[in-house]
Amino acid sequence: MTARATGGVSLSHEVPPPTGKYQWVYLWDWPIRAMHWLAALAILVLAVTGLYIGRPYFVVGGDTASHFVMGWIRFTHFTAAAVLVMTGIVRLYWLFAGNKFERWIALFPIRPRDWVNMFRQVKYYLMIQPEKAPRYLGHNPLQQLSYTGVYALALVEVVTGFALYGQSDPGGFFFRAFGWIGPMLGGMPVVRSVHHVSTWLFLTFIPIHVYLATRADMLERGGTISSIITGGRFVPAGERFSDE
Questions:
Q1: Directed axis angle between helix 30-54 and helix 188-220, to 10°?
Q2: How far apart are CA 230 and CA 183, in angstroms?
């Protein structure tokens, strides 16, 4: 594919050939990969069940006690929340136990060159001078910021969710541990709104994340999607990367 550029804006760029000398690079240990897919499933279940709890989009006729639909939906929601928290605990541990692509330092663009590369990455996604895009084995700086933001969003979702859950048992553990969330945010209706808006932010992030990962695989043939399944990917032999 031949690049067509006008005024520094490229409408397309050359796709690396499928042949050549490549080497396998191992990036993600199996706990990271397992937690990624478990968290993805948990977030999907949480979104579906949470939206139903907030505003039921179907109603089953008959005696409530005979089908207990809302009860099962809430139980599924709470179970998925427990799974999401578990994946967060494992990921927190792996911030210190993982390899250099998985540790906490890989989630923050702390080096000056990473900030420079972040703007180059933004220009790449905007199809401006894509040939100058930085090359990273792990997460590029823009991904570092976005994934760190997603972790922060998950924390907000979990904390507000626990605060709402505590309302079902005044005086219980969750009520005592997270009862301060309501007064801090201005009341439980605000907590519920924050929890609801966070859900939609997750639902906005997911298609963008899938699109960019697929785009990277199609344009760069870097194995971004397969790496979260197999743990690694093939890269051109001898190529230098910004995070090596």
A1: 130
A2: 46
pTM equals: 0.80
- pLDDT per residue as tens digits for the range 72-89: 999 999 999 999 999 999
State how far the Cα of 110 lies from the Cα of 139, in Å rounded to an integer: 13
Q: Which 3 state secondary structure label does DSSP give 5?
A: strand
Q: What is the 8-class DSSP label of residue 123? A: H
What are the two backbone dihedrals, phi and then psi, of residue 135, each rounded to the nearest 5 degrees?
A: -115, 125
Q: Which two tokens stand for residue 103?
A: 């540790």
Place 158 in a pLDDT band, splitting at 50, 70 and 90: very high
What's the per-residue H, E or C state across 177-214? HHCCHHHHHCCHHHHHHHHHHHHHHHHHHHHHHHHHHH
Q: Which amino acid is at 82?
A: A
At 224 the three-state DSSP class reads helix
**Position of tokens 């008959």?**
62
CA dihedral 150, 155, 157, 161 (to 10 degrees): 160
Show Cβ contacts of residue 56 under 8 Å, excluding neighbours closer than 6 positions: 70
Determine contact, residues 225/36, Cβ cutoff 8 Å: no
